[in-house]
Write a structure and sequence with these properties.
heterodimer, A: 181 residues, alpha+beta, Muramoyl-pentapeptide Carboxypeptidase, domain 2, 6 helices, B: alpha+beta, 4-stranded antiparallel sheet
């Protein structure tokens, strides 16, 4: 299976990580100007990440037909770290710090393409800006698209980025609002 | 107080890093959406996207000049345009821009033409906003690069044989360029 995944990685189109990084930076800068509170920027980044995640989940499933259905959080973490994150961010990731009966874990990105050319000032961090929150939001969105409700938050430390994920529940299929009688 | 290593303490990467195009595509679409939600008119959206591009252009120019040309910057207008068409475009989008033309009607106007800009690949423009071209982002990048190399200009993106970036130089730039040509003759 891993060979097939490598094949898929090679097939997908690539682009410059620097343009990606600077584009994201330009957007965050603009949002910091638009919103008064850096906390609101974090919330907004999380929402945008969520939207991106739901779309990337479709893209991911369309391109990786051989990914098995996950039954527990260990498996979710495995697919995220081994396939999804290397595929979309081009970096490796590891899952660790399992707590509360495997319901919470931390994904560590050893290098983060979003912060490659970026320095976030300490006063913004202490005011509540989580620069890489978009990745956490994207994971939340992608997992929600496959019916896992999780909470995710990101922290940057040096060149590492840690994403803490808390599993909440498996969502049930439900009819869209207004269609049940 | 913990002393952290700042970004300037690290050496500059060689810029070979790559990410998946899909990731950029969804990020860019979120950005366009954000600009759209905060603007009233199509011109506003255009300007906003261009201003994001400028932020990128300013920084990208420094990196590329440092990495590819050993701090040396072009001073001639045509050299600068060729540098953008080939080196900058290759660094940003992995290929050269398609064509560089000079307008027949106006000696201050140059056109940089790209059939299929990367940023437009995944954006579908609604019919009521037909004139919106999200390559305004790339236009912003070009404008920032030219301005920071002291070629005062205005760059806009239009639909014409694909996408055309219309580069309208300030009169003074052209006059300076002509004087430079005369003195070297």
């Amino acid at each position: 299976m891993s060979k097939a995944i490598k094949q898929n990685l090679a097939d997908s189109k690539k682009m410059s990580a620097e343009l990606f990084c600077l584009t994201y930076g330009a957007m965050v800068t603009e949002m910091l100007k638009d919103y008064e509170d850096p906390k609101d920027v974090t919330i907004q980044l999380d929402k945008m990440g969520f939207n991106m995640g739901t779309r990337l989940a479709d893209d991911f499933l369309a391109k990786n037909a051989n990914v098995p259905r996950c039954v527990d959080t260990r498996q979710i973490a495995d697919v995220l770290c081994r396939t999804a994150i290397p595929c979309y961010l081009g970096v490796s990731a590891t899952a660790s710090s399992w707590t509360s009966g495997d319901r919470e874990f931390t994904i560590t990105l050893e290098s983060n393409p979003l912060t490659e050319l970026v320095q976030v000032t300490p006063n913004l961090v202490s005011a509540g800006l989580s620069y890489s929150q978009m990745i956490a939001g994207a994971i939340r969105g992608a997992l929600e698209a496959v019916h896992f409700k999780v909470y995710a938050s990101a922290t940057d430390s040096g060149s590492n980025t840690e994403i803490r994920i808390r599993f909440d529940q498996v969502l049930k299929d439900s009819l869209p609002a207004g269609e049940d009688d | 107080m913990v002393k952290t290593t700042g970004i300037l303490d690290k050496s500059l990467s060689r810029g070979k890093g790559e990410v998946n195009l899909s990731t950029f595509a969804v990020l860019f679409s979120e950005m366009v959406l954000y600009a759209q939600n905060r603007s009233e008119t199509v011109t506003d959206i255009h300007d906003k996207i261009a201003s994001y591009g400028k932020q990128v252009g300013l920084r990208m120019f420094d990196i590329i000049v440092l990495r590819e040309k050993g701090y040396k910057r072009e001073t001639k207008l045509l050299g600068m345009l060729m540098f953008i068409k080939s080196t900058v475009w290759k660094n940003l989008f992995g290929k050269e821009a398609d064509k560089l033309e000079r307008s027949n009607d106006d000696h201050c106007t140059y056109l940089l033409i790209e059939k299929d800009p990367l940023v437009n690949t995944y954006i579908s423009v609604p019919r009521d906003k037909g004139v919106l071209n999200c390559a305004a982002f790339a236009a912003g990048i070009v404008e920032a690069i030219l301005e920071s190399a002291s070629f005062k200009c205005k760059v806009t993106a239009h639909w014409h044989n694909g996408t055309a970036y219309v580069i309208q130089f300030d009169e003074s730039v052209i006059a300076r360029e002509n004087a430079l040509m005369d003195s070297s003759r």
